[in-house]
Amino acid sequence: MTALGPKSEAALRAAMARLLDGRPERTDGALTIANLAREAGISRATANRAGDLLIEFRTAEVRQRRSSPSALKERVRALEAELRAVRGAEMAELRALARTLAQHIQVLTLQVAERDAVIDGLQDELARSVDARVVPLRRPPRGGG
Question: Which of 15, 18, 52, 131 has the fewest Cβ atoms within 10 angstroms?
Fold first, then answer.
């Protein structure tokens, strides 16, 4: 509830609008109660009696501070730093994974080379045994002895 006359309240509302819009006429534009009173052309004591209006001003000031260009730029910087950290961690993880996969490929390549060598050896042996004669082994008769 505002304990002010209509003229003082109107002056405070107009001053609040100017300060929040960034177009002060009598102050440096800082969003303070003292500047609000000075901008309205009333005493600080009179401004302090406008409880509801001051709550409204402080709420708008907090909202504006959160969405001010400098606050937004700082938020962007913080998010970019966080993104760089996350990307750095992901890149390190991907590099480690690539090294592991390269090692697996190297092992598999060696195993394939060994398998190919065994196959070549078996094929050579098979080629040499084409002319060979297979002699069956006889079993000794049972019961002899």
Answer: 131
